[in-house]
Amino acid sequence: GLIIVGSGSLEGELRTAIEAKPYKDHILLAGDVEHGVTLHLINDSDALLRTTLFDGDAISVREALFLETPVIATDNGMRPVGVHLVPTHDEDAVLAAVKVLAIQERNRKNPKNVDISNILAVLEVYNGLVSHER
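Predicted structure:
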C-alpha cells in the first residue's frame, strides 16, 4: 500500500482523488504524524517517494537514506547522493523507478548464485565442536 504523511493545501483535492480510485483501500492519507512514528514508517517502508514540486532539500530524504530506505524523488537540483531522481511531472519515470527498486529489492532478498561456502565452513566448525563436547 501507500501511506501519505503530512498535510498541505492540496489535502482536500488529494482526498477526493484517492476516494475516486478503485485501489483507494490501499492508500492511507495519514496527515501530520509524530516525527518518531514517521521515522518508523520510513524504516519499515520499501521506498520513500518524495515526488513534489514544492520543496528544496527535504530532511525526510536524508532520514530515509540514513535508514537505508531507498528514495525516489523529483530532481530539484538539491538532492543528496543516493537518491533515485525523476523529472518533475513524469509519472512514467516514477513508475519505472519504482519497478527498478522492486527488482533490486527482490534480487537483494533472493540472490542467485550466492557463494555460501564460508557459512558452510563455519557451520562445520560449530558441528565439530558440538559433537566433540558430547
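Summary: The two ends are 51 Å apart (CA to CA).
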